[in-house]
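Dear Dr. H.,

I hope your travels went smoothly. While you were away I took the liberty of generating a structure for the chain from your last submission, since the lab meeting agenda had it listed for discussion. I wanted you to have the full record in hand beforehand rather than looking at slides cold. The sequence, exactly as received, is reproduced here:
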Amino acid sequence: MTKRVLHVVTNVGHYDDPTHPTGLWLSELTHAWEVFEAHGFAQALVSPLGGAVPLEPRSLKFPSYDKTAKAWRADPARMALLEDTASPDAIDPVDFDAVYFTGGHAVMYDFPDSEGLQRITRAIWERGGVVSSVCHGYCGLLNTTLADGSLLVAGRRLTGFAWQEEVLARVDKLVPYNVEEAMRERGARYEKAKVPFVSYTVGDGNLITGQNPGSAKATAERVAARLTAR
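The corresponding predicted structure, in token form, is as follows:
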């Protein structure tokens, strides 16, 4: 059976201050897409509201704007996928073996409280599927509860964009909250690399997470390994 992965992307195009644009960090999608494509997995896109996905301008600059991101932007068919993503209501979690939350600071606004995304994530997890995220994508796991009312992240090892990295990226005054701190408050066993911005991933059973944009490929590879081992 062909494995199917659902990528979660954002609909938000700016911070609270509308003069500061943000959006999907493109390489976090393209690196993972390339890995899953190489494994022959089927892939689809969903966003909290459905429809268009804005791109984070900083993700279109060196070094994040690499060959995979450039190839995506040069492909009209691929770009069309970002103009017409599915809404959560159109997604049946039974159709997917894994969910992968992409990042970009925009997701801090529309991922955490999306009941539709929570429904999908809970269903995939409780069916024994893989739940994964990279960078700020773990914002999508902040408030997801399981059937017994417990938080999915409570007591589980994970990683995601660190507060130190927010400071170094000079966006600590723009972001709406400290997600690393919020994860710890929810009982997550947060981990990070000793050096900022290096690739770092954490696997805790079917929960697989990556710390930053440079971790997208390694995160996807761990997801693929988990899926193909079955």
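Two observations you may find useful: The two ends are 11 Å apart (CA to CA). DSSP finds eight helices and eight strands in the chain.

With kind regards,
E. W.
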